[in-house]
Amino acid sequence: MVLQIIGHTDEKGGCPLKTEDLREKLKVYFIMGSTNCLSDPEETLKQACEGGITLFQFREKGTQALKEQQKLNLGGKLKEICHQYSVPFIVNDDIDLAVRLGADGVHIGQEDEPAEKVRKKIGSGILGVSVHTLEEARAAIEQGADYLGIGPIYKTTTKEDAKEVQGVQLLTRLREEGITIPIVGIGGITASNAEAVIKAGADGVSVITAISQADSAKNAAKQLRESVQPL
Ligand SMILES: Cc1ncc(COP(=O)(O)OP(=O)(O)O)c(N)n1
Ligand SMILES: Cc1ncsc1CCOP(=O)(O)O
Ligand SMILES: [Mg+2]
């Protein structure tokens, strides 16, 4: 897995984006699968890219989700769109799919394959790990995470098995404890509440609904970018 967009390795030989570049890429992190979109997923992603998203995660999940060849086909098309806009393409959960698609990275949670194992499989690709405690954060970093996903920050209806809403407390705590790795907040985030997430210590915000269900994915992405960027 090789990131073509910014072709250099960082100081620890892991993620091919320098830590500070990855922080920038996390600013407006759009996550989506075919079941999240109001309209055609490819068109939704194109509009989101036009609006200024900085990172994309393909999360094809749920009972109505595409499988096998259809999932592979859609993933391939979405990756192409991302790369036309120099937006790195991340795959959620499915490491084999990520490798087959030549994705720029993967995102895993505590119930997925262990980070250490995934790091070995993806080499220098971007590795994101969801954590819910300080201990999980330390372990993920130890095992090779490039960034952490923290949430749900606010109420979400998108993830059925989401943990309890935690607000921005964990974000604040991690920074107080000296955790400097790039972090993104997730869960119920919109252009109206994104500022609080950044102020608490996140480098960026991850959203599904705020862009995929907006009347205009382009405007929604633009508004999120504006609410995060000037801070
Ligand atoms: C950026 C980001 N943060 C958190 C998650 C959630 O991951 P996980 O807990 O593994 O849950 P699923 O997304 O797999 O349902 C994420 N996907 N992205
Ligand atoms: C994948 C995930 N992980 C924690 S909350 C969440 C869902 C985020 O979706 P939304 O932005 O629609 O609340
Ligand atoms: Mg997962």
UniProtKB/TrEMBL annotation:
GO MF annotations in UniProt: magnesium ion binding; thiamine-phosphate diphosphorylase activity
Any Pfam family: TMP-TENI
Catalytic activity line of the entry: 4-methyl-5-(2-phosphooxyethyl)-thiazole + 4-amino-2-methyl-5-(diphosphooxymethyl)pyrimidine + H(+) = thiamine phosphate + diphosphate; 2-(2-carboxy-4-methylthiazol-5-yl)ethyl phosphate + 4-amino-2-methyl-5-(diphosphooxymethyl)pyrimidine + 2 H(+) = thiamine phosphate + CO2 + diphosphate; 2-[(2R,5Z)-2-carboxy-4-methylthiazol-5(2H)-ylidene]ethyl phosphate + 4-amino-2-methyl-5-(diphosphooxymethyl)pyrimidine + 2 H(+) = thiamine phosphate + CO2 + diphosphate
UniProt key word Metal-binding: yes
Positions of the Thiamine phosphate synthase/TenI domain: 28-211
Keyword field: Magnesium, Metal-binding, Thiamine biosynthesis, Transferase
Cellular compartments per GO CC: cytoplasm
Residues that, per the record, bind 4-amino-2-methyl-5-(diphosphooxymethyl)pyrimidine: 57-61, 92, 130, 159
Coiled coil (UniProt feature): none
Required co-factors: Mg(2+)
Comment on bound cofactor: Binds 1 Mg(2+) ion per subunit.
Binding site for 2-[(2R,5Z)-2-carboxy-4-methylthiazol-5(2H)-ylidene]ethyl phosphate: 156-158, 188, 208-209
Role played: Condenses 4-methyl-5-(beta-hydroxyethyl)thiazole monophosphate (THZ-P) and 2-methyl-4-amino-5-hydroxymethyl pyrimidine pyrophosphate (HMP-PP) to form thiamine monophosphate (TMP).
UniProt cross-references to NCBIfam families, sorted A to Z: thiE (TIGR00693)
UniProt name for this protein: Thiamine-phosphate synthase
Lineage of source species: Bacteria, Bacillati, Bacillota, Bacilli, Bacillales
